[in-house]
Design a protein that fits this description.
- Pfam families: B3_4.
- This is B3/B4 tRNA-binding domain-containing protein.
- GO terms for molecular function: phenylalanine-tRNA ligase activity; RNA binding.
- InterPro entries: B3/B4_tRNA-bd (IPR005146), Phe-tRNA_synthase-like_B3/B4 (IPR020825).
- This protein has 6 helices and 11 strands.
- It is of the alpha+beta class and 235 residues long.
- The chain has one domain: Phenylalanyl-tRNA Synthetase, Chain B, domain 3 (3-Layer(bba) Sandwich), CATH 3.50.40.
- The chain starts with a strand and ends in an 11-residue tail after the last strand.
């Protein structure tokens, strides 16, 4: 994975924690995922997650970043913002699959954007960069429905297509985690130094601990301005 210079220069306090899982089992129930999903729902219900409102550093910093690359964050909300709103409205965190439930729960509990890719479906390197003219995106849940990324928005992209729109607003269909996904890369992000690094590290450690019980091997990495490239080897 590569953090492009144009993005790290525009957002120099960007820090991303990567959790790389080899031979993941995403088809059987994870007790740990159930437990943390319950805790996340309780945190919203009892008001603890209210600390991550729109004016908080955790959310406001992403709104500021979105505006900086030309995206209206109230029209296309950062993933953590959208997830928290959805959980506050419904009263619970939806269950999708064990791995997705785990990173969604961590996202809610720490107020951080989180996501994942099925690495066996990635083509070439993953690069966090500005979108170019001609970049195309196939939205999650809409296979075959292609749309153009807006030039200049921050995206994750591989050699074939855009993998996320508006940095972390929406994932693509091809690389989503499925029950048969075996090699996965999880991401946790901050874009501003107003969000403490130790919170990002704690969230990554918690996610890695959950995933490690259901994978053959788990490694964690950091991605930032001075460490802008991570090589991942998938057997």
């Amino acid at each position: 994975m590569i953090l492009a210079p144009e993005v790290s220069e525009a957002f120099p306090e960007t820090e991303i924690r990567l959790v790389f899982a080899v031979n993941l089992d995403n088809s059987s129930p994870w007790r740990e995922a159930v437990d943390i999903r319950t805790k996340a729902g309780e945190a919203v219900a009892n008001g603890r997650a209210a600390a991550f409102g729109e004016e908080s550093d955790h959310i406001a910093s992403w709104h500021e970043a979105y505006r900086a690359f030309g995206t209206n964050p109230r029209r296309f909300r950062p993933s953590v913002d959208a997830l928290l709103r959805r959980v506050r409205k419904s009263g619970s965190l939806p269950s999708i699959s064990p791995a997705v439930d785990a990173y969604n729960a961590v996202s809610v509990l720490w107020g951080l954007p989180a996501g994942a890719f099925d690495l066996d479906r990635v083509v070439g390197d993953i690069v966090i960069r500005h979108a170019h003219d001609g970049d195309m995106f196939e939205p999650l849940g809409e296979p075959g429905e292609w749309e153009s990324a807006r030039v200049g928005e921050v995206v994750y992209a591989d050699a074939e297509a855009v993998l996320t729109r508006h940095w972390n607003h929406r994932d693509c269909h091809r690389t989503m985690l499925r029950p048969d996904s075996r090699n996965a890369l999880f991401m946790l992000e901050r874009v501003s130094g107003k969000v403490p690094l130790d919170e990002l590290d704690q969230a990554a450690e918690r996610l890695a601990g959950i995933v490690s019980a259901h994978a053959q091997h788990v490694e964690t990495y950091l991605l930032n301005r001075t460490s802008a490239q991570v090589a991942l080897r998938v057997a």
